[in-house]
Amino acid sequence: MKRITVFCGSSFGTDEIYKEQATLLGQTLAKQNIELVYGGANVGLMGAIADGVLNAGGKAIGVLPNFLRSKEIAHLGLTELILVESMHERKTKMNDLCDGVIALPGGFGTLEELFEMLTWAQLGLHKKPIAILNINGFYDALIELTKVMVEKGLLKDVNQQMLLVSDNIDDLLDQMKNYVAPTVGKWIDKEKV
C-alpha cells in the first residue's frame, strides 16, 4: 500500500486518546512510507493525523472543497492540497488516490464517507481494504449494528466481513496489507455500470 485515505472528525472529541491515536497513526504511516490522503483540514483529528505524518517526515495529501477553504480550515503545511468543487468530488478523488481506507472516530461525515466506500466495495467498484481503528471501543455499537444487518438478512456475511476492525494500529495495517476482496458480488458488475 502506497497511500491510505483516512476519514475522521474535524473536532477532537471528548477523549484525549482519539488525538493521541490519530497522531500515532500518522507517525506510523510515515515510518512505513505510506502516504496519507485525507480531507485537507488543519482542525481536530484531521489536523492531528496530518501533523503526525508531516512531523515524522511523511507525505500528506489533502483534498478539500473550495467552500471549506474559504472558512480558513485548510492545512497550509501539506505535501499537496487538491481543491475540488463538491463533497462528492472530494470522496471520488480520495478514492482515486488511495490503496485503502481507515476510519477514525468522527461524526456524520466520517460515517457517510466510510459507508460510501463500503458500498462501492460491495458493488464491486473497487477491491480496496476498508478498516476501522476502533479506538477505545468508539465503533463497538456500529460493529454490532452490522452484525444485526446480517442476522436480519439485509447484509451478506461476506460483505460484513469486508470491514476490517482493530484497536491496534499495527494489527490493522497488517490486516489491510493481507486483505483479499470477496469474489461474491452484489447483483451488478463494474463493466455494466
From TrEMBL:
It is an enzyme of class 3 (hydrolase). The keyword Hydrolase applies. Its EC number is 3.2.2.n1. It holds the Pfam family Lysine_decarbox. It catalyses: AMP + H2O = D-ribose 5-phosphate + adenine. InterPro entries: LOG, LOG_fam. It comes from the Bacteria. Keywords: Cytokinin biosynthesis, Hydrolase. Belongs to the LOG family. This is Cytokinin riboside 5'-monophosphate phosphoribohydrolase. It comes from Flavobacterium azizsancarii.
